Amino acid sequence: MTPLALTMGDPAGIGGEITLKAWRALRHSGPAFVAIDDQARLRAIDATVPLRPVASAAEASAVFAEALPVLAETGGAVASIERAAALALAGEVGGVVTSPINKSVLYAAGFAYPGHTEFLAALTGGAMPVMMLACPALRVVPVTIHLSLRDALAALTTGLIVDTARITHAALRRDFGIAAPRLALAGVNPHAGEGGALGAEDEAIVAPAVAALRAEGIDATGPWPPDTMFTADARARYDVALGMYHDQVLIPLKTLDMHNGVNVTLGLPIVRTSPDHGTAYDIAGRGIADPSSLIAAIRMAATLAAARARGQHPAP
Ligand SMILES: NC(=O)C1=CN([C@@H]2O[C@H](COP(=O)(O)OP(=O)(O)OC[C@H]3O[C@@H](n4cnc5c(N)ncnc54)[C@H](O)[C@@H]3O)[C@@H](O)[C@H]2O)C=CC1
Ligand SMILES: NCC(=O)COP(=O)(O)O
Question: Per-residue confidence at 310, pLDDT binned at 50, 70, 90?
Fold first, then answer.
């Protein structure tokens, strides 16, 4: 069984702690993963977790029940991501699960990408990536991602919405086995613009995207008033909600199910998931971090990797 690669994330955050907790939770059931990490720092977090240095990812599955396999990486968070992506491209791991990075810290150090999503896209061939967050009750895609609200509105175009929706639609079919995905597109403004009285974007930008997608045979609807499209009744009518800016869709998802949310990158040639949360500096080092979201991310990556390996849902 091909293991997954788990990156180290920000060493000052909760990534190491939840890595060790995830190994304790999964060691007997799997899925197996190899930590691309610094063994000394993991031991300092919890010396009671047995670690096993491995020279290659191929050794990881056989030892996973006994110890957490570690592929030594002392070059830091970015080097860990680069190594994991290279292993996934080479087929040595089934997919990449990333521990959280602190974006402002990396930006200050000159990191040129908004986040993992865009960095992994660049590392794996440059395809347009789409961020999706999923929990059992909801899947959401932010059309614009890590931009200020002002910049997000300026960046929002019908073309961007259509491209994002096409990638989402293809990935839900290929990777998630949904034969005819139903996409619900959020409006931008209160009440989806109230016929233009509360902003022009819904009629000028979002509605033409819905029309273009429907003309291609994609089951897209909207623009929906954002304040009512996340009720339980509304959620039953779609498979994924596309929001026009980050917080429009991440707030409902994290409010519904912060600890089971998974961030999955669509449109890449490799499988990539991560927990939905960040570095949680406020609780780092206290031993109280909840590993559930990371465990859900590991399980989802394994499911997607197995489907791709069977050729059931071929990679985009
Ligand atoms: N995939 C990634 O690399 C992500 C990175 N981030 C980064 O994380 C940094 C901090 O972001 P915040 O907005 O503060 O969000 P955060 O998710 O790190 O923390 C928000 C709140 O949730 C709590 N929390 C988060 N994860 C938890 C867990 N596993 N168990 C228990 N409590 C938990 C924290 O203690 C905090 O009170 C930012 O730099 C952001 O860019 C945020 C989201 C995803
Ligand atoms: N808010 C989601 C987030 O910050 C994750 O970004 P990425 O690092 O997965 O691109």
Answer: confident
Two tokens, residue 84? 């994991």
Could you check whether 1-127+281-316 and 128-267 share the same CATH topology?
yes
CATH of region 128-267 = 3.40.718.10
Q: How many CB atoms lie within 10 A of CB 309?
A: 13
| ipTM of the complex as predicted | 0.98
Nearest bound ligand to CA 113?
2
* Atom 15 in ligand 1: residue holding the nearest Cα: 278
Band of the pLDDT at 313, cuts 50, 70, 90?
Answer: low
pTM for the whole structure: 0.97
Nearest CA owner, ligand 1 atom 41: 103
Ligand 1 atom closest to Cα of 282?
A: 35
Q: How many helices (H) and strands (E) does the chain have?
A: 13, 12
Q: What is the pLDDT of residue 248?
A: 98
Q: Which atom of ligand 1 has the smallest separation from the CA of 102? A: 39
Instruction: Determine the atom of ligand 1 nearest the C-alpha atom of 10.
Output: 3
Residue 237 DSSP one-character state: T
Average pLDDT of the chain is: 96
Q: Does domain 1-127+281-316 have CATH number 3.40.50.2300?
A: no
Q: Rounded to the nearest whole angstrom, what is the distance from the C-alpha of residue 98 to the centroid of ligand 2?
A: 10
Q: Is 109 exposed, middle or buried (0-12, 13-18, 19+ CB in 10 A)?
A: exposed
Q: Is 56 helix (H, G, I), strand (E, B) or coil?
A: coil
- Residue 277, CA atoms < 13 Å, CB-side half-sphere: 22
Question: Which residues lie below 8 Å from residue 90, measured CB to CB, with a gap of 6+?
Answer: none
3-state secondary structure of 105: helix
pLDDT at 224 over 70: yes
Q: Is 246 annotated as a binding residue?
A: yes
What is the per-residue pLDDT for 24? Answer: 98
Ligand 2 centroid – CA 136 distance (Å)? 19
